[in-house]
Each structure stands twice: as C-alpha cells, then as structure tokens.
Amino acid sequence: MSIPVLPPIQLDGIDFRFNEMKASQYGGLTNFCGWKEILLRQSGGRRDVMLPPNTKSIVGTVAHNVLEQVLRGNICDAAGFDEAWAQQLASRLEKLQTDYPWLKVQTPLEDYEKKYRTKLMAERVWQRRSSRQGTTTVPEGEYKIPGLTGRIDLVIRRDQWTAIVDYKTGTITTGNGEIKPAFVIQLKLYALLYQKQTGQIVSKLNLLNLADERFEVPFTQEELEPLYEQVLAKSASLNEFIDAGDFSALANLEEETCRFCQLRPLCDHYWQSAIKNTSDFEGSFREVKEAFDKSLLLVFDVAGERRLLRGLQGWTMDDFAGKEGMSLRVLNAWPSDKPEMTHLYNATANTALFWSNA
Ligand code: SF4
Prior knowledge:
This protein is an alpha+beta fold. It has nine helices and 13 strands.
C-alpha cells in the first residue's frame, strides 16, 4: 500500500456535456457542483484518489437497496431480509477495504439500529400489501425525459388518485422542522418525470422515513414546468462554460457544498480557496519519525511555518522514504485546540493522505 499520487486533470478536448441531470442530484439545485462531475470523469472514477464514503452513508445505501427489494416483492419475509442485509453490507464493506487499504473498516455502529428500523418498515410493507384492496403499489424504476432522469421508489395508485413515495433512511427535515429544500425539488421533479412519461397526473408527493413518518410535499401543477425549464437552463449554462473552456466557473465553492465532498483531494479550486475545512491542510513534507506505538509523526512546511501531524496509523516509514520536499494533502486531521499549539494536528482513523503535483 502506498500513498496515492493525485493525477493531473486534463481539460483539453473534453467531450463531456451535462445532457442528463438526475432529479436526486438536481434536488440540490443551489449546491450542485459541475466541477465535481468533471473531476469524476477526468480521473477515470479512481476510488483511491477520492475520500472514502463514510460508513454511515454505506449503511443508509444498504437500507435503501434492501427496502427497494422489499417493495419490488423480491424479499417477502424476515429471513430473506436478514440474508440480503448481511450480504449487501458485507460486500460493500469489503469493497471499501479494497479501495482504501489504509482505512480500518469495521461494521459501523449505526448498522444495528438502522437494520432494526428498516426491518420494521419492511414488515409494514408486507402487512399493507396483504390488506390493501383496490390499490396498486408499483415499485418503480428509472424515468427519463430529455435532459432529466430519476429513480422513483414507489407509486401508489387508487382509482383516479396517484401518489409518489420516496423513502429516506436519514433525516428528512432541517433543524427548524421544514422538509429539506433539496428533497422538495427532487419530489417535484419526480412528479414531472412521471406525468410526462405516463400521461397520468400525480396527486400527492410523500416522503417516508424509517420511523414510518410521512411528510407531504405540497405542490401545484403550474410550478412543475418552470422547474423543468430551470433544469434545462442549468445544464445549458454549465455546457456553455465547458464550450468556452471556463472550467473554474463550474465549481460551486461553498463551505456547505465542499465540506463533505469526496473529491476534495483532487480539487485544486478547493485547495486554493479560503473555505477549506480546518481539518484539511497541504504542506511540503519534510521528515517522518516513528513513535513507540509505531504511529508516525510527520513534519511539514506550510507557508514557511512548521506543522506537525502526529498519531498517524496505517502507513510505515517506507511510504515516506525519498519524498522530502514533495507536496502532501492531509484531510481529516484535527488541529490542537490549545492556542499555543496551532502547528500541531492529530491524525484520526479517517485521516487521508495524497501526494499532489502542486
Ligand atoms: S471540493 Fe467543492 S468545488 Fe471542489 S469538487 Fe467538491 S464540491 Fe466542487
């Protein structure tokens, strides 16, 4: 295992265009970052040059996928549920470990609680299915119209009435109790996709969490078409930036957008900005020392000042041999909270390192 070297991002002759936005992605209308899409494609989707997903989000994906199988009728009892959950979680954690050998991958604590709640939700789905009269539940799939796609979880139809349901395994509301704006846009785009593709009018949009709490997203027919036009206009303006070679205009450099971005290691815009997380820094590597417990202490120059990173695990002295003077990007290391020790950073289990070409 060695520390990944970040590849240069080639922008000459780029042929990528934003021709198809995802409703889930576009739900984050205000914090959508076009530059992230370019980085993803131009780095060949290499996992090792991105930050690992957090295990909490992996459990969320497993919950969503298993629930989708329940809705599709592919999982009909508790034993099938347990088997699917165990299989999916194990294969995702195994992939995580393969992609990031330095990471200490463990079964996340969230697993037990989320599995329990997802299973309760699955049981409610099985019960409702056997008791419903005159209602069709359609575990839906991919919908597509020019410039927009979306994967709808569930459509419920009764007589002339149609509802779209989207399951969320995380929190649905913001701190002040309102439905997250990104989810509101996402659901309205689902209504638009469904109506345009099937010709059937959607009456209700609902979000459902694992506690079986239902959140209705109010909407009017009149607002759907203008929203679609916004999607198309956004794609067109992003494509104009690409055509003009103005790639930096694609970056949405905002603290809220960048804070958890997995592409941070590769994003020069981020490293040159003033909005970097306090846990991330870049410095010229000077030397490495090994402590009694085999953890490492790295010494850097950052803007002419000495910086130390201590308690680093997962790498050996050999990983740094002959690298003096090279630039290293350090992510997810915590600065000391003592005012006189601002040069000292503490490594965590999630601290990631990347040699940069800067
Ligand atoms: S760090 Fe910010 S600007 Fe860079 S790709 Fe991620 S979201 Fe976009």
